[in-house]
Design brief:
The protein starts with 7 loop residues before the first strand and ends with a helix. Helix content is 35%, strand content 15%. It has a single domain, classed as Aminopeptidase, CATH 3.40.630. The model has no long low-confidence stretch (mean pLDDT 95). It has 268 residues and is an alpha/beta fold. It has a seven-stranded mixed beta sheet with strand order 1-3-2-4-7-5-6, with helices on both faces.
Length: 268
């Protein structure tokens, strides 16, 4: 019997800024849980824990509640289920091949998610003309073990801003306002290393929003390196979690101001 528990949460608000944490979830629905070969700590290592805390910077929110190992909402539909190790950082996700009936149940959930997000964003567009999305993620940088070396910081910024298939010229005021505000924030007595399209250019979710709302959407795919936590034990530094949320909050006013300028040109 299909699991009726919600696997994402959409919170409509009054703001034209939407914050999303679609990889925050850790839950696995009951009828596939026993088929997974990965332990919860192994799954947690590749999920984006704590990102749901950061969506509080705005009142319009989208949060994933289930694990990306059940269904990855940030990949194209045909790749949303990790069927082979190469789909999942070399990890063998399933004890044996996922039964097609359960795969189809997952894909129906995928379709429902995108349908509901489209409805939300359409409402935001109708109300505000155009909107900005903070697509929040995290990424690992100590893949050789807890005591192993960290990845080269030159190629792994603390914050990677993916602007992928965006009309970069059109939305330059918004991107620049965000990056300038985040870089200038006093983060525990220093500045964050914030760079664009170094490690990632953004995933499917961002690209789908841009394709679906080409004249209305500016999606910033924001990847925080897991410098704020131990990526092997899952333990966070609570002070840094709060500091990151405050740093993101610092960007909101200048981003909304820049959005209004661009929107005035698009919809005079």
């Amino acid at each position: 019997m299909p699991d009726k528990q919600p696997f994402y949460k959409i919170v409509p608000g009054s703001s034209p800024l939407i914050a999303t944490a679609i990889h925050d979830g850790h839950t696995i629905r009951a009828n596939v849980n026993s088929l997974l070969s990965l332990t919860p700590p192994e799954r947690l290592r590749e999920e984006d824990p704590f990102t749901a805390q950061w969506v509080a910077v705005t009142d319009t929110q989208i949060i994933g509640l289930n694990s990306r190992f059940e269904l990855d909402l940030n990949r194209p539909r045909h790749k949303a289920i990790y069927r082979k190790p190469e789909d999942a950082w070399g990890l063998s996700v399933w004890k044996e091949e996922l039964p097609e009936e359960l795969a189809q149940e997952s894909l129906a959930r995928y379709d429902q998610f995108y349908e509901d997000v489209k409805q939300l964003l359409t409402q935001v567009k109708e109300k505000h003309g155009c909107f900005v999305v903070y697509d929040l993620h995290t990424y690992n940088h100590k893949r050789e073990g807890e005591a192993g070396p960290a990845a080269d910081p030159e190629a792994n910024p603390e914050v990677n801003i993916g602007t992928g298939n965006m009309n970069r010229q059109l939305w330059a005021p918004v991107v620049d306002a965000f990056m300038q505000a985040l870089r200038s924030y006093n983060y525990q007595g220093r500045q964050l290393d914030v760079r664009e399209n170094v490690k990632f250019q953004g995933g499917h979710f961002m690209r789908w929003i841009h394709d679906t709302f080409p004249d209305s959407a500016c999606v910033l795919s924001i990847e925080f390196k897991k410098f704020f936590m131990n990526e092997w034990t899952g333990e966070p530094d609570q002070e840094q979690l709060t500091a990151i949320r405050q740093a993101l909050q610092h960007t909101v006013a200048p981003v909304l101001e820049a959005r209004a300028q661009v929107c005035q040109k698009l919809h005079p």
